[in-house]
Amino acid sequence: MMLKRAQGLQKRIAWMMILLVLVFLVLLGKLARIQFWEGPLMAAKAQSQLRESKRLHSPRGTIYDRGGRELAVSNVNKSLFADPEGIKDADQTAALLAPVLGMKTEELHELISLKGRFVWVRRTMEPEMTEQVKRVMKENHLSGFGFMDESKRYYPSGSLAAQVIGFVGTDDTGLDGLELSLDKTIKGSWTEQLVDTDVRGIPIFKSIFTFAAQKRTQNVFLTLDSNIQFLAEQGLDKAMATTGAQAATLIVMNPKTGEVLAMASRPTFNPNRFGQSNSASWRNRAVNFIYEPGSTFKALVTAAAIQENEVSPDERFFDKGYIQVGDRRIQNWSGDSYGNVPFTDIFKQSLNTGFVEVGLRVGAQRLCDYAKAFGFGHSTGIELPGEEEGLLFEAKDMRPSDVATMAIGQSIAVTPLQLIAGISAIANDGLLLKPHIVKEIRASDGTLVKKTEPESVRQVVSTQTARTIAMLMEKVVSEGGGKNAAVKGYRIAGKTGTAEKLDPQGGYYKGRYIASFAGFGPVENPQVSILLIIDDPNGVYYGGQIAAPIAGDILGQILRYLNIAPQGSAGQLPETKALSMPAALPPKRDESDATPVVVPPGKVLVPNLRGKSIREAGEILSQAGLALVPLGSGRCVGQDYPPRDLVDPGTAIKGRFEPE
Q1: CA triplet 573, 574, 579: central angle to 5 degrees?
Q2: Is residue 44 over pLDDT 60?
Q3: Of 195, 267, 316, 491, which is least packed with CB atoms within 10 Å of its CB?
């Protein structure tokens, strides 16, 4: 009996063991299946639930001037985002972080209380703000926030060439100027990266910062020269201050290459803080402002007439002070009668009567054809956004009175860039070039991607005709209405202009004018062409009185800066020979010497620029009748001509500037 019980127990134990072995084998098989067959699939599924695709952005390409000076650069800054569901106490968090972020407490509270898992709090913070935010979060154990790298645009030269460069929005999108037109070229590239997240989908930040976006952007070098740009803007500021004008525009070009050396507009703004200015100050008037050019257009009318053998410089006209064309009576700007005069004097004194007669000889069709040939009526194609085409009559629609007014620079609307391109064609022996402001584009490793070569548009008039016009324009500056633009030691050609201001609603504004001066030099080998437009000056409004002297002053400073020797000089100008300065500029005499200096006639005492900003130094030198060539940025730490030295009027003083 006992034996049978023992045998039965052994059988049950044996069956139990067999069952356990079978269960073990089944579990082992299941584990093996999971490990070797389903494991990789399940791991991938789990990983996909804990990883998120992030797009990382490399910095935007740099914009340089022709000499490599940075005009627009990008830095990688931190942007703060929040996961509202991960924030424990929105009231406390908003109260702690709002002062650091420069936000109102209620504004931040509203943001971090939104539904969802992601909201931007503050984009592209400065490093100091980022560190303060991190400290507050750490000290108060704040959760639900994270940082992402984003590119932020900086403009080291502030408002210099602001309308040309433009500005960038928070999403690295160009909004105006070259930043807009070259957006696809210099925009930073996006790179996809899988970022590890926790179970709530919040990025694990180490996985973000271990990844660096590749730099595949391109950098742009402009034709602008920062020093010439500064001289131009300094001149514009003077024009605005002395004339009380509503606006002003200035362009400087190389007439033999089509390169824009300077382009400036007033009013202006600082692109680092573009949101603090109005849209009117963003406007690049050089390309998107149209106006009647007035007498500056007469140079091109004369070119057409001489080319078509309709007039010669020595042909004589009888001027009785006015001319009647249909129902239109056109007078000279002064209202005077000059009697029997050669065409040279008609050009020199800008007599409307003579130009009307010449324009009628040329006729509507040829006048329009030459206007189009000089580039009017269509955009130049420069690499800037928003370029206007101007307004030009169709010849078939023109009455004799329209031809007459077009001959004196009315009944046609142009952009400043179109006009200076036409004047530059005269300086370039009648060959019109396409204006350009991008010199070259290079990859991030310095490899040349694209170089802009001078591009001929057409030969508008013959070389002989162009040189005849240059001779007539030179007489305007040496003997006529443009005398105030004369530059001692240089042969300058120019034409002044005074035109009534167009009303966009039709007709003209009463008592409102646009004064201008267009010219180039030196006449024997033109290197620089210039156009200054003063819009709606207060008081005196004649171009020869307010535009010519400022344009001549700027042109003289530029010629000296470019080492273009004056007539009678044996060589280059010593004061502008070098474009760089040594680390230290030893003074020629003790600057602390308080002994009075006797200033002889024809000399100027050099002021002390040390500690001054570029703008302050420029104003001081301008008041003394001198020019500034700034090197670097910040405050002045040295100058090549020391304080109290005696120099000739108009001398260019090089100042070395360094950040404070």
Answers
A1: 90
A2: no
A3: 316
For this structure, is 74 an active site residue? no
Phi/psi for 159 (5° steps) reads -80, 0
Q: Which residue has the higher pLDDT, 530 or 275?
A: 530
Q: How far apart (Å, rounded) are the C-alpha atoms in residues 231 and 630?
A: 9
pLDDT at 590 over 50: no
Taking Cα atoms as reference points, which of 261, 226, 267, 230 lies closest to residue 249? 267
Number of Cβ within a 10 Å radius of residue 67: 13
Running DSSP on this structure, what letter comes out for residue 189?
P
Under 8 Å between Cβ of 311 and 345: no
Please report the DSSP string for 256-284 in residue order: TTTEEEEEEEES---GGGGGGS-HHHH--
- Which phi and psi (to 5°) does residue 172 adopt? 60, 35
Could you give the CA distance from residue 542 to residue 513 in angstroms, rounded to a whole number? 8
Under a CB-based contact definition with an 8 Å cutoff, are residues 261 and 252 in contact? yes
**139 has pLDDT over 50:** yes
120 contact partners, CB below 8 Å, separation of at least 6: 79, 80, 81
For residues 61 and 70, is the Cβ–Cβ distance under 8 A?
no
Q: Which residue has the tokens 């050009």?
A: 347
What mean pLDDT value characterizes the chain? 84
Integer Cα distance of 22 and 570 in angstroms: 111
Write the DSSP symbol of residue 206.
H
Q: For residues 562-582, give the mean pLDDT.
A: 52
Tell me the two tokens of residue 403.
């031809």
Whole-structure pTM value: 0.73
Secondary structure (3-state) at 237: helix
pLDDT band for position 216 (50/70/90)?
Answer: low
The predicted-structure confidence for 295-317, as pLDDT tens digits, reads as follows: 999 999 999 999 999 999 999 99
Is the pLDDT at 121 greater than 70? The verdict is yes
Handedness of CA 331, 332, 333, 336 (dihedral sign): negative
Q: What is the rounded distance in angstroms from the CA atom of residue 39 to the CA atom of residue 623?
A: 82
For helices 352-362 and 298-307, angle between their N-to-C axes, nearest 10 degrees: 40
Tokens of residue 113, six digits? 């209380």
Residues β-bridged to residue 76: 151
Compute CA distances 532 → 38, 136, 197, whole Å: 78, 54, 60
Tokens 């156009």 -> residue: 531
> How does residue 513 score in pLDDT terms, banded at 50, 70 and 90?
very high
Q: How far apart are CA 407 and CA 425, in angstroms?
A: 19
Tell me how far apart the alpha carbons of residues 264 and 248 are, in angstroms, rounded to a whole number.
8
Calpha distance 196→332 (Å, rounded): 79
Residue keyed to tokens 């003074």: 587
3-state secondary structure of 31: helix
Q: Which two tokens stand for residue 317?
A: 């006209």
Q: How far apart are CA 595 and CA 643, in angstroms?
A: 12
592 confidence band (pLDDT: 50, 70, 90):
very low
| Alpha carbon distances (Å) from 153 to 6, 139, 386 | 91, 31, 22
**Contact criterion met (CB below 8 Å) for 125 and 80:** yes
Residues 455 and 257: their CA atoms lie apart, in Å, by 8
**SS3 labels along 30-54:** HHHHHHHHHHHHHHHHHHHHCEEEE
Q: What is the 3-state secondary structure of 545-610?
A: HHHHHHHHHHHHHHHHHCCCCCCCCCCCCHHHCCCCCCCCCCCCCCCCCCCCCCCCCCCEECCCCC
In terms of residues, how long is the chain?
Answer: 660
Catalytic residue among 79, 151, 181, 295: 295
In the chain, the amino acid numbered 228 is I
